[in-house]
Amino acid sequence: MIQESCPFKVALSGVGGFVLGGLFGMFMSSFEMASVDPTIYDQPMKKQLKATAQDMARRSFSMAKNFAVVGAIFSGTECVIEGQLDVLLALH
Questions:
Q1: The pLDDT of residue 30
Q2: Distance (Å, whole) CA 32 – CA 28
Q3: Which of 32, 33, 22 has the alpha carbon at shortest distance from 57?
Q4: Quick one: pLDDT at residue 75?
């Protein structure tokens, strides 16, 4: 019963979007590091790793938030539309 409720679906979509967005952000940050700071490769290895980890965390969190919002909005909109359709069908 609770699994069919709109708040549960919205929360689940938000959490799932956050996790998938975080993973996607980590994956995408590995491709874009050189474009952010091309001089990073002239730095010592420790600074390179630190800069890479910070960039990866920042991009992952940003994409995770975006995916969570999009998932929650999509799921919430779907619930509202389904609810309105149920009301309209009950009237006829």
A1: 76
A2: 7
A3: 22
A4: 93
> pLDDT below 50 — which residues of the chain?
none
Q: What is the 3-state secondary structure (H, E, C) of the chain?
A: CHHHCHHHHHHHHHHHHHHHHHHHHHHHHHHHHHHHCHHHHHCCHHHHHHHHHHHHHHHHHHHHHHHHHHHHHHHHHHHHHHHHHHHHHHHC
Residue with tokens 């979509």: 13
What does pTM read for this prediction?
A: 0.77
Break the chain into its structural domains and give their ranges.
2-91
Share of the chain above pLDDT 70, in %: 92
In 3D space, the residue among 27, 33, 24 whose CA is nearest the CA of residue 63 turns out to be 24
Cβ proximity of 25 and 90 under 8 Å: no
Residue that the structure tokens 């474009």 belong to: 35
